């Protein structure tokens, strides 16, 4: 799914109005109608509804919602924030329509003293500002936003399209922003919902389709995308009935050290479960028995070093490897750094670089330029900062992420609630599967294994990244559903990977 900017959403509205038999007023009826239907599905008329409307089209939506709910027997009070004498044409039209039958339910708000006393089971609808937000909310209007937020413990707050005060395309810098429990947003995810800094505002986001013109959506390029099942279906390739184990590639994982062999095992298992044809694991001598006993499906190569991987570059004389994954539990010994440097000068194909391999690159930044094009880096925010420096906020970090992916011609997976995947062509995909139960040791090692396994099957790096991150999160969601977010471990993500292939695509 494409994520459009506020300016593009305005264009999509205009395009739809120009190419379909629908007016802007009609489109507003449709959008607000979707919100009213959602509200009716979730709340019965025993809940009095308090709607706060602005003077633009977001306010217009609120006025239509008020009329529709009143038509259906709800008790509604609609306050119009008079922060400006001017209203948009559609807002005026919808106000007239509401006043025609329900004028006694509408009142003006010109100061914080006009904020109503809310009965116990009231619901608050925030229709003050939407995607037209262009500057911080000030004065008593900001005061009303704060008063709405003060109700958060007692009343459900539902924002229409955007939490008022939040800018659609960036991290929040302002203080007066509605903190909604739910946001009912039209047609598209907004970038703002996907940024960690904006977590307190949108609550649970529900995207309501309002029939914006499909031609605009397909023809208009977007920089940001949300990964979805549709994308996965175009990527996933069922296995060839005539396949043999050589068909799906020979993967090499360079992982583990004394005390961190678990990371190597997790990666190896995930790599095999992601479908690699053959897997060799390069481990220190101390890891030989552990690997052979824990994962009989993997082959094992032991390093000259008893505790660390320091001679793995020699492995790549076997050029039959389809993919290399390096990093889980690797440690950052000087010998490991040297061997990594040699590996990078001898290996030209995309590889997966994670954990301590990323830490080595941050200690020896000259290695960055040697990463083969198309490789996949999987930093969490701290590792990202060590690699590429700090950022002032989430939007700046996103720009830096994309810039680095383009200049190094690699894929960078910045892990988080909505993991961001930056591609060498400048596109950024946000992943929507996964849950906080995956914030546990070993989750990242599992991802590295999955990505290496997919690369070894000849998925392109872009396909491997999108599919791998999606499946990893999906398997985590299945694990959490069966075991709870607390009790699930990284091992469970691997256990549910099979079901994720079956149900997640
Ligand atoms: N255009 C369309 O056809 C549709 C628009 N829809 C609604 O229209 C909304 C966008 O409407 P608008 O573009 O009118 O904008 P908004 O209703 O979000 O904002 C109203 C106006 O307030 C002013 N403003 C911005 N920031 C302010 C601030 N901090 N303090 C005071 N004034 C401020 C701006 O001039 C802006 O145009 C969407 O979010 C959505 O809710 C929906 O009805 C769907 C259809
Ligand atoms: K709003």
TrEMBL record:
Binds 1 potassium ion per subunit. Keywords: ATP-binding, Isomerase, Lyase, Metal-binding, Multifunctional enzyme, NAD, NADP, Nucleotide-binding, Potassium. It comes from the Bacteria. AMP binds at residues 415-419, 444. Residues 228-504 form the YjeF C-terminal domain. Residues 9-218 form the YjeF N-terminal domain. Its cofactor is K(+); Mg(2+). It catalyses: (6R)-NADHX = (6S)-NADHX; (6R)-NADPHX = (6S)-NADPHX; (6S)-NADPHX + ADP = AMP + phosphate + NADPH + H(+); (6S)-NADHX + ADP = AMP + phosphate + NADH + H(+). K(+) binds at residues 58, 126, 164. (6S)-NADPHX binds at residues 57-61, 130-136, 161, 263, 329, 380, 445. InterPro entries: Carbohydrate_kinase_pred_CS, CARKD, Nnr, Ribokinase-like, YjeF_N_dom, YjeF_N_dom_sf. Its EC number is 4.2.1.136, 5.1.99.6. Pfam families: Carb_kinase (PF01256), YjeF_N (PF03853). CDD domains: YXKO-related. Catalyzes the dehydration of the S-form of NAD(P)HX at the expense of ADP, which is converted to AMP. Together with NAD(P)HX epimerase, which catalyzes the epimerization of the S- and R-forms, the enzyme allows the repair of both epimers of NAD(P)HX, a damaged form of NAD(P)H that is a result of enzymatic or heat-dependent hydration. Homotetramer. Belongs to the NnrD/CARKD family. This is Bifunctional NAD(P)H-hydrate repair enzyme.
């Amino acid at each position: 799914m494409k994520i459009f900017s506020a300016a593009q959403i305005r264009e999509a509205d205009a395009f739809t109005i120009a190419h379909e038999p629908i007016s802007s007023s009609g489109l507003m009826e449709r959008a607000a109608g979707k919100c009213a239907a959602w509200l009716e599905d979730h709340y019965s008329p025993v809940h009095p509804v308090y709607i706060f409307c602005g003077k633009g089209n977001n306010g217009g939506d609120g006025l239509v919602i008020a009329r529709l709910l009143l038509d259906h027997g709800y008790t509604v009070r609609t306050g119009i924030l008079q922060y400006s004498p001017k209203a948009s044409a559609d807002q005026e039209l919808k106000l007239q329509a509401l006043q025609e039958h329900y004028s006694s339910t509408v009142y003006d708000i010109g100061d914080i003293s006009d904020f109503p006393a809310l009965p116990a089971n009231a619901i608050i609808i925030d229709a003050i500002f939407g995607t037209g937000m262009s500057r911080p909310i000030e004065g008593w209007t900001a005061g009303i936003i704060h008063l709405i937020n003060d109700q958060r413990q007692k009343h459900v707050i539902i924002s229409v399209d955007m939490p008022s005060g939040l800018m659609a395309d960036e991290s929040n810098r302002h203080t007066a922003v509605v903190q909604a429990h739910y946001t009912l947003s039209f047609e598209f995810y907004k970038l703002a919902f996907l940024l960690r800094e904006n977590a307190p505002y949108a609550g649970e986001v529900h995207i309501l389709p309002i029939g914006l013109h499909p031609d605009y959506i397909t023809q208009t390029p977007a920089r940001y995308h949300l990964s979805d099942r549709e994308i996965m279906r175009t990527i996933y390739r069922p296995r060839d009935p005539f396949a043999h184990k050589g068909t799906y590639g020979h993967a090499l994982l360079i992982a583990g050290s004394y005390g961190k062999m678990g990371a190597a095992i997790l990666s190896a298992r995930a790599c095999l479960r992601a479908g690699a044809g053959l897997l060799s694991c390069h481990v220190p001598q101390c890891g030989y028995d552990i690997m052979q006993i824990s994962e009989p499906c993997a082959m094992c190569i032991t390093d000259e070093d008893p505790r660390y991987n320091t001679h793995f570059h020699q492995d790549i004389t076997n050029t039959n490897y389809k993919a290399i994954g390096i990093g889980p539990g690797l440690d950052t010994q000087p010998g490991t750094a040297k061997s990594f440097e040699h590996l990078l000068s001898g290996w030209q194909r995309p590889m997966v670089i994670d954990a301590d391999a990323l830490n080595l690159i941050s200690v020896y930044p000259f290695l960055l330029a040697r990463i083969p094009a198309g490789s996949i880096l999987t930093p969490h925010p701290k590792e990202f900062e060590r690699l590429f420096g700090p950022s002032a906020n989430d939007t700046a970090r996103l720009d830096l992420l994309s810039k680095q992916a383009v200049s190094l011609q690699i894929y960078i997976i910045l892990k988080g609630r909505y993991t961001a995947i930056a591609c060498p062509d400048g596109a950024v995909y946000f992943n929507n599967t996964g849950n906080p139960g995956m914030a546990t040791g070993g989750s990242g090692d599992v991802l590295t294994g999955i990505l290496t396994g997919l690369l070894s099957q000849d998925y392109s790096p872009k396909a491997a990244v999108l599919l791998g991150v999606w499946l990893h999160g999906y398997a985590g969601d299945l694990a959490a559903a069966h075991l709870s977010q607390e009790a699930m471990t990284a091992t469970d993500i691997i256990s549910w990977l099979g079901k994720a292939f079956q149900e997640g695509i």
